[in-house]
Amino acid sequence: MRTSGVLLHISSLPSPGGIGSLGREAYAFADFLQASGFHIWQVLPVGPTGYGESPYQSSSVFAGNPLLISCQALRDEGLLSYSDDEEFTPKDPEKVDFDEVRKNKMMLLRRCFRESSAKVSHQLDRFRADQPWVLDYALFTALKEHFGGIMFSAWPDRDVIYRKPEALRKYREQLAEEIDFHIFCQFIFRHQWMALKEYCNQRNILLFGDMPIYVAEDSADTWTQPEIFQLNSERIPKRVAGVPPDYFSATGQLWGNPLYRWRRLRRRHYDWWVSRMKNMAQLFDMVRIDHFVGFANYYSVKHGLPDARKGKWVIGPGSDLFRVLQREVPDIRIIAEDLGCVNDRVKKLLKWCGYPGMKVLTFGFDGDETNPHFPANYQQNTVAYTGTHDNSTLLGWAETASDHAMDLARKTLHFEKKEDAPDSFIRCLFEGPCDTVIIPMQDILHLDDHARMNLPGTIGGNWLWRMKPDSLSLDLTMKYNKLIAETNRR
Q1: E strands within 31-180?
Q2: Angle, nearest 10°, between helix axes 165-174 and 176-202?
């Protein structure tokens, strides 16, 4: 089946409150996708954002981001009372002001908790039973607030760092109300998410999620299960993740995430990974596994080094992990993010799994026509993108590309003006052989790099872009309905 979809993170929707949410605007976007003929809606990771507001540095691989909750939907359900002027209104509607959004959203969610937690007590009890991770996540979040937001490995009470039973009991009693509040937020997030998923699925729209391979150093996951990560006795990573120096970076990329103890996970039949993937299968119909390369072989850097130049490659779990995941979680479609250092071991693992890999069209015009991202080299079992959240938009690429890259793109895709590049790139993918094509919403709207989501290796100024409220026009719907029909996609 030839399919097509759009990449737009929830935070980029033009919802009230200064950030995109799971309210009316999300449903309106699903309607736009259906009317235009698209079959897939891809989002970025939906967990609580971490350092630099990155969704790839979350405090939990199981939790949802409370900032994405729609207060308007809570009001519509009779669970929250507030006037419109109590909800934050940003000065710039195209950017998220995370500090102001968080302050305002948490104020309203705490009010909702006071007003309505008793009304949903039975559902909350069922949620606790169905989602066993939520108790530890809520305690971790309450403890971080209690200790002023510092990393858990630096908490002044060492007993609770090491999860001594008496310390856990003490703080569960002392922070009981705060713990209940964070459980309530997770219940509301899950309730709103599953309602949106049902709405999308009823309209033949698949929700496509994104799962980072690694977890944040300061997370509920590392606190609750330190034994499956390469941590020392002080809960500090021994070695961390990254990628070596390459064409894009002379010093490599030092991500800083703790690495896994794969042998220990294997002895446990990868139980944590099975639980993680089952959670993803509840939330999504499809999932992109970020940095799939790391399951074949991962780059390991000693903790404390200033950059990634002195790392080493280590063999990963390979097919042993995916044999278990395919058996235990069969009902989710997996896409492998196989960009980066793709050696023979990675290729063999991808072939064994049978998962589609990725191609990025804006990568295809560096060098010559042997470039694997050059459109003539695309294959059927592939998900093709014009660009990802880490790249320039198409228009941004056209404005900054080298003369060689632009000349090759013009010759291959038959366009002249830079402003015509987006439509030419998009049509190329739609007409091409790949089973699935995904277009970032910024490229559909012909936006330049002011709408870029992330510039890797930088902190601050990322993950901010929001779509204007009037972006989903009838002309846009008709344009893509026609393109999808002409190229025999859905």
Answers
A1: 40-42
A2: 80
Which residues, listed in sequence order, are joined to residue 237 by a DSSP beta bridge?
231
Cα–Cα distance between 340 and 246 in angstroms, integer?
9
pTM: 0.97
Structural domain contains residue 451: yes
pLDDT of residue 269: 98
Q: Is 289 inside a domain boundary? A: yes
Which spans in 7-97 are helix H? 24-36, 71-76
Half-sphere exposure of 123 (CA within 13 A, CB side): 12
CA distances from 350 to 19, 59, 168, 360 (A): 37, 29, 42, 17
Is-contact 82 164, C-beta < 8 A?
A: no
Q: Going by DSSP bridges, is the β-strand pair 297-302/312-315 parallel, antiparallel, or unpaired?
A: antiparallel
- As a whole number of angstroms, the distance between CA 457 and CA 43 comes to 21
Q: Are 397 and 391 in contact (CB under 8 A)?
A: yes
323 C-beta neighbours (distance < 10 Å), count: 14
**CATH number for position 39:** 3.20.20.80
Q: Residue 71: its pLDDT value, please?
A: 98
Q: 301, 242 in Cβ contact below 8 A?
A: yes
Report how far residue 124's alpha carbon sits from residue 110's, in angstroms, rounded to the nearest whole number.
Answer: 16
Q: Read off the tokens for 32.
A: 């736009």
Residue 383 lies in a domain: no
The DSSP code sequence of 442-485 is HHHTT--GGG----TT--SS-S-B---TT-S-HHHHHHHHHHHH
What is the mean pLDDT for each group of 10 consecutive residues in the chain (490 residues)? 97 98 98 98 96 93 98 98 96 96 98 97 97 98 98 98 98 98 98 98 98 97 98 97 86 94 98 98 97 97 95 97 97 93 94 97 94 96 97 96 96 95 98 98 98 89 96 97 96
Q: How many domains does the chain have?
A: 1
Distance (Å, rounded) from C-alpha 452 to C-alpha 393?
A: 6
Are the C-beta atoms of residues 289 and 336 closer than 8 Å to each other? Answer: yes
Burial code (b: 16+ CB inside 10 Å, e: under 16) for 120-156 equals beeebeebbeebebbebbbbbbbbbeeeeeebbbebe
Question: Residue 474 domain-assigned?
Answer: yes
Give me the active site residues, please. Answer: 290, 337, 390
CA-wise closest residue to 175 among 151, 157, 189: 157
